[in-house]
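One such given next:
>
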Amino acid sequence: MKLFAFLWLIGLALCHNVLLPPYGKQCFFETLKKNDELAISFQVGSRDPQNGEQLKASFYIGSPSGQVLVKKNDIDHGDEVVRATSDGKYTYCFSNERSSRVDMDVSFNVHGVIYIDFENPDSNTLDYAIQRLSQLTSDVKAEQGYLVIRERTHRNTAESTNSRVKWWSVFQILMVATNSLFQIYYLRRFFEVKSVV
């Protein structure tokens, strides 16, 4: 009887960043065998620290036959997983084709599960264990890179909000000071004694 197992392997060692210009699109591919899983996690942001807006892009995954397996529009982050039904190149794309306003910074990680047959004699060697440990370490490193990008995006949003609150507070202080000066002036004129000779 065959034993089957899935082993988490990272497709790429580092987190990738893509800059999508207005009406831009970037596509990538992974070559998978049947029963492999392709997992992609991504975050959309801006490289401009003054931009506190949460940007949104479109994302889709296509099969080797051209069939669209996953399609998401107007999302700012996501984690998508597809299982390969046949051997071939699976394409995934990020798109800014609906927006003409701003460049988008998309950071993404590609990882997945590769189908392993434990009856294969090569799967029980020290080299195999070292390769597996190396790939799991790379997976942790890629996830940390992804979290750094998310932290940068959220920090930009927080700094933009803090700036808006600061200027609104300055405006309120000026309005209160102006109102106070007007009231003092008005009350002094009201209680001023006018003498008639």
